[in-house]
């Protein structure tokens, strides 16, 4: 044998790759290498300088249907099952393109709509258009529905009244006893106030919320509670929010006295008009 496979060493009569044994596409002359001189001397044959020859182009077996290349002529095609394979010269056109690393934009392009959606949601939350509280487990608990009204009654803005109550109470305090108005405390007061209305007018007793679920800024201290009910009058008896705030403050002072004036750092108020016209007030502080 004059030729042998450079990979597995199988001898062949002609320089006609690929190898029948392993499918390799390079043969070399079956000559004795320098490191085989000792072995040749045992048989008395002449050592021949080792070396390889240019074997020419490499060949593969290509499917005549889909073009899939195979190392050996072993039909059918592994891709489409076609039984016809043709011997063709292997070329490496497009190899550089196939091995090129895609840019980050090409990798991310299919996911751009997802990224855009996430960005829009974050923007809605960041700008306040959508409250994070709509997501489960995020934000303060939403207060339960209760009969009556907690926003506007007889043309009086009850939410504006709540702020006016805080301003009126500040007038009763020394500068060193000033309190901030806490929106978390106000949310807690609203929840508790509606629970009272539900209990009195709908015969319902929902579970009380965990105060830690509210952003009341009281640390580990539970907010102090001050419920009150203004009866015998109607919201219609007050011309504006300031007059209604004066009436509520007078009621709170009569019940809690100096507890309303001193000893705490923040407060929140909720006002709710019950179905019978009574004014339910809940005061929270810490």
Supply the number of helical segments: 8
Largest sheet: 4 strands, mixed
Q: How do the helices and strands follow one another from N- to C-terminus?
A: EEEHEEEHHHEEHEHEHHEE
What's the average pLDDT? 82
The unreliable regions are 45-53
What structural class is derived from the secondary structure elements?
alpha+beta
Distance between the termini: 100 Å
* CATH H-level superfamily of the largest domain: CAP
Q: What best-fitting shape do the alpha-carbon axes yield?
A: rod-shaped
Number of DSSP strand runs? 12
Number of domains: 3
CATH class of the largest domain: Alpha Beta
Strand line-up across the major sheet: 9-11-12-10
CATH level-3 fold name of the largest domain: Pathogenesis-related Protein p14a
Second-tier CATH architecture of the largest domain: 3-Layer(aba) Sandwich
**Fraction in helix:** 25-40%
Indicate the radius of gyration in whole angstroms: 44 Å
Strand content: 15-25%
Keywords:
286 residues, 3-stranded antiparallel β-sheet, alpha+beta, Pathogenesis-related Protein p14a, rod-shaped, 8 helices
Architecture overview:
The protein has eight helices and twelve strands. It has 286 residues and is of the alpha+beta class. The protein has three domains: 3-99, no CATH class; 104-130; 152-285, CAP (Pathogenesis-related Protein p14a). It has a four-stranded mixed sheet. The protein has a three-stranded antiparallel sheet with strand order 2-1-3, with no helix packed on it. A hairpin with a 5-residue loop joins strand 1 and strand 2 (11-12). 23% of the residues are buried. Mean pLDDT is 82; it is low at 45-53.
């Amino acid at each position: 044998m004059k030729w042998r496979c450079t990979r597995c060493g199988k001898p062949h009569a002609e320089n006609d790759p690929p190898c029948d044994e392993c499918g390799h596409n390079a043969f070399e002359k079956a000559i004795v290498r320098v490191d085989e001189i000792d072995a040749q001397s045992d048989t008395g044959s002449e050592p021949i300088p080792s070396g390889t020859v240019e074997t020419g182009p490499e060949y593969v077996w290509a499917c005549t249907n889909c073009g899939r290349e195979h190392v050996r002529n072993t039909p059918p095609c592994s891709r489409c099952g076609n039984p016809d394979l043709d011997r063709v010269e292997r070329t490496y056109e497009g190899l550089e393109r196939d091995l090129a690393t895609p840019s980050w934009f090409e990798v991310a392009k299919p996911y751009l709509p997802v990224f855009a959606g996430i960005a829009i949601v974050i923007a809605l939350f960041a700008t306040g258009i959508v409250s994070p509280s709509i997501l489960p487990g995020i934000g303060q608990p939403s207060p339960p529905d209760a009969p009556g009204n907690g926003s506007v009654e007889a043309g009086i803005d009850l939410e504006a009244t709540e702020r006016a109550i805080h301003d009126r109470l500040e007038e009763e305090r020394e500068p060193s006893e000033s309190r901030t108005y806490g929106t978390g405390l106000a949310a807690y007061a609203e929840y508790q106030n509606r629970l009272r209305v539900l209990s009195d007018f709908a015969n319902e007793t929902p579970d009380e919320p965990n105060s830690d679920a509210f952003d009341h800024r009281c640390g580990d201290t539970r907010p102090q509670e001050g419920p009150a009910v203004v009866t015998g009058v109607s919201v219609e008896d007050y011309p504006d929010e300031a007059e209604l705030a004066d009436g509520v403050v007078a009621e709170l002072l009569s019940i809690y006295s100096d507890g309303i004036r001193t000893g705490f750092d923040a407060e929140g108020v909720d006002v709710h008009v019950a179905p019978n016209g009574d004014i339910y007030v809940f005061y929270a502080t810490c």
